[in-house]
Write a structure and sequence with these properties.
about 450 residues; alpha/beta; Rossmann fold; Alpha-Beta Plaits; 3 domains; 7-stranded parallel β-sheet; 14 helices
Length: about 450
C-alpha cells in the first residue's frame, strides 16, 4: 500500500520519526524476520505499524496482519495508535473479558489488522471465526511478557496455524531474551536501541529515601507530600501490598488508586483512565504498569518495594526521563533492608521534611455514561450536551474516552455536582443514559 508518511505523522502529532523508528521501518520492509528491541516509551508501536501499513493490500478483505500482545491494555493502546494514523483500514481487538459476541460480529467483517491476547485469539482460531489465509505478517509485541504470563501453548498453537506467513516481527523492551523455538525465527535481523542515546540515563536522577520504620508507609506519605502535588507511579511487588498501601495512603488524605493483574478488567481499565485524566494523582501498582501501558510521561517513579531483577527495575524507571525528558526515581528502603546487587554505586539521599502540606486534591473527577460507540455516541455529542444541558464551559472538561458500551469523561471536580443535577432528566441524542461519578 502507498503510504503518505508525513500525513500519518501529522495525525499522530509527530514531526518526524526518531532514529529507532527509521531503522525499524527500513529493517522490517527489507527482512522477513526482525527482532526490535528498544526501551519503554520510545515509540516502538509506531516503529512497526508504519512498515506494516506499507505491507497491507487495501483490496484484500481479510485479516492480513496479526499482532499478539500479553495484555488487554497493550492491545487497546496499539489500536488507539492505529486509529490515530487514520489509514482508512479497519482494526479490531480481542481479549479476555471483552464480549465474545461483539468480537464475533466484528470478525464477520474482518479487519486488516487484528490485535489480541493469545488466549482469546487461539479461541477464535479454533472456532474458525476468521480466515487465516490472508495473514502474511505476524507481530509478537512484548513477546517475553506473554511467555511470562503463561501463554506459550496458545502462542505455539497460533503460530503453527499460520501457514501463509511471510514476515515475523518480534518486539521487546528487554535485551538478552531467548526467542522460543516454536516462533520459527532463526537468525533475525536485530534492531537494538537499548544502548543508544535514546536510552541515556543522564536525565534520570536516582534518590535514596531511608525509612526509620519497617513498614515505610509514613515515609512514603512524607515523600508524596514533598513532590509539589505532581503525579507519581508507586511500585509494589505484590497485589495485596498495592491494595494495602493504597488504603493506608487514602486514610492519610492521599487521593490514589491501585492497579494489578488480579483486578477485574473493567476495574483495571477504570484505574488507568482515572490516572490518565488526573482524577487521581498517584497509581500504586505492580510491575504490570512498568511497560506496555498508555499512561503519561511521569516526573516521579517510586520504588516502595524493589524488584528482584534488574531488568524490572529498569523498566519501572523507563516510565520517567523518556525521550530526553527529566525525571526522578526514588528508592524507599528501611534501615534493615539490604540493597540488591544491581544497585551499585552511591545514591543521593533525600532527607524528608515531616511538616509538608498534603498534596492538592485532584482537579478532575471521572464521570461515567452508560452508552458508547455501539450506541452511536461520540465525543462531539457528549461535549455538546455537557456544555448546553449541563451548563459547563469548555475548560471544565478534560479527557473523554468513548468505549463500545460506556464512556468516561473527566470533569472539573467543583463542577460535578451541578452537572449531575442539570443532566438528571436530560437525554443524549434522544436517549436517556445513566450518568454518575465512576467508582
Amino acid at each position: 500500500m502507498e503510504v503518505n508518511s508525513q500525513a500519518i505523522l501529522s495525525h499522530l502529532g509527530i514531526e518526524s520519526l526518531n532514529p529507532m523508528q527509521e531503522s525499524a521501518h527500513k529493517t522490517i520492509i527489507n527482512h522477513d524476520a526482525v527482532l526490535l528491541i528498544a526501551p519503554t516509551g520510545t515509540g516502538k508501536t509506531v516503529g512497526y505499524l508504519l512498515p506494516v501499513l506499507q505491507l497491507l493490500n487495501p483490496s484484500i478483505h481479510s485479516v492480513q496482519c496479526l499482532i499478539l500482545v500479553p495484555s488487554r491494555e497493550l492491545a487497546l493502546q496499539i489500536e488507539q495508535v492505529w486509529k490515530k494514523m487514520s489509514t482508512g483500514l479497519k482494526v479490531n481487538v480481542c481479549y479476555g473479558g471483552h464480549s465474545s459476541q461483539v468480537e464475533n460480529k466484528n470478525l464477520s467483517n474482518p479487519p486488516s489488522i487484528l490485535i489480541g491476547t493469545p488466549g482469546r485469539i487461539a479461541d477464535h482460531i479454533k472456532k474458525g471465526r476468521f480466515s487465516l489465509e490472508g495473514i502474511k505478517t505476524l507481530v509478537l509485541d512484548e513477546f517475553d511478557k506473554s511467555l511470562e504470563f503463561g501463554f506459550q501453548v496458545e502462542m505455539e498453537y497460533i503460530i503453527n496455524s499460520l501457514n501463509k506467513l511471510r514476515k515475523k516481527i518480534l518486539v521487546s523492551a528487554t535485551t538478552s531474551i531467548e526467542i522460543p523455538e516454536f516462533a520459527g525465527v532463526i537468525k533475525p535481523k536485530i534492531v537494538d536501541f537499548t544502548s543508544d542515546e535514546v536510552n541515556k540515563v543522564s536525565d534520570l536522577t536516582l534518590k535514596l529515601v531511608i525509612s526509620e520504620d519497617k513498614d515505610k508507609v509514613d515515609t512514603l506519605f512524607n515523600l508524596l507530600c514533598s513532590l509539589n502535588s505532581e503525579p507519581a507511579l508507586i511500585f509494589c511487588n505484590h497485589r495485596d501490598a498495592c491494595e494495602r498501601t493504597t488504603a493506608m495512603l487514602y486514610d492519610k488524605g492521599i487521593f490514589c488508586t491501585f492497579y494489578h493483574g488480579g483486578m477485574e478488567q473493567d476495574n483495571r481499565e477504570l484505574a488507568l483512565i482515572r490516572f490518565r485524566n488526573s482524577s487521581v494523582n498517584y497509581l500504586v501498582t505492580t510491575d504490570l504498569a512498568a511497560r506496555g501501558l498508555d499512561i503519561p510521561e511521569m516526573k516521579h517513579v517510586i520504588h516502595f518495594h524493589l524488584p528482584g531483577q534488574e531488568h524490572e527495575f529498569l523498566h519501572r524507571n523507563g516510565r520517567t526521563a523518556r525521550m530526553h525528558a527529566k525525571g526522578t526515581s526514588y528508592v524507599v528502603l528501611s534501615r534493615e533492608e539490604k540493597q540488591p546487587a544491581y544497585l551499585t554505586g552511591p545514591m543521593e539521599e533525600m532527607i524528608l521534611q515531616k511538616k509538608n502540606k498534603l498534596p492538592e486534591p485532584p482537579k478532575f473527577k471521572t464521570i461515567y455514561i452508560s452508552g458508547g460507540k455501539k450506541n452511536k455516541l461520540n465525543k462531539i455529542d457528549i461535549v455538546g450536551s455537557f456544555l448546553q444541558k449541563g451548563k459547563l464551559e469548555k475548560e471544565d472538561l478534560g479527557q473523554i474516552e468513548v468505549k463500545d458500551f460506556y464512556t468516561y469523561v473527566a470533569v472539573k471536580s467543583e463542577k460535578v455536582s451541578g452537572l449531575l443535577f442539570d443532566m438528571k432528566e436530560k437525554k443524549l441524542k434522544g436517549k436517556k443514559y445513566k450518568i454518575g461519578v465512576a467508582r
